Amino acid sequence: MAALRVRSRPDLILVDIIMLGELDGIQGAEIITRDYDIPIIFLTAWTDDDTVSRAKATNPYTFLLKPYNKNEVKVVRSILLCSEKLRRENCWPPKNDAPSCGAP
User: Fold this and answer.
1) What does the pLDDT average to over 10-15?
2) Alpha carbon separation from 85 to 44, 73, 95, 97 (Å, rounded)
């Protein structure tokens, strides 16, 4: 299996399920989740039961269907960054009186 190298730590990774090369996006997401604990958002047009099952097993943040729009990605990214910030600060799930995360 191919090795993945992360030179800098991104806040999240958008992963297309169908990719050229040795690994598909789901296999790549498995490695990223296991080795780096970076949240994954899958982008795909594939919705068959097997693909969705395999993707769900990687515990992605969400699964966006193509064609997607820029605003949809922007909103999902903002919510993910907020929840990840709270999770890493041990404030997740937020309480009613919890401060906003202030993520972009």
Assistant:
1) 91
2) 26, 18, 15, 17
Tell me which long-range contacts 13-22 makes (C-beta under 8 A, separation of at least 24): 13/38, 13/39, 13/40, 13/41, 14/41, 14/43, 14/73, 15/40, 15/41, 15/42, 15/43, 15/60, 16/42, 16/43, 16/44, 17/42, 17/43, 17/44, 17/46, 17/51, 17/55, 18/44, 18/46
- Domains in the chain, please, with CATH? 13-88 (3.40.50.2300)
What is the C-alpha radius of gyration for the chain, rounded to an integer number of angstroms? 15
The 10s digit of each residue's pLDDT in 25-74 is: 999 999 999 998 899 999 999 999 999 999 999 999 999 999 989 999 99
* CA proximity to 29, closest of 17, 20, 45, 44: 17
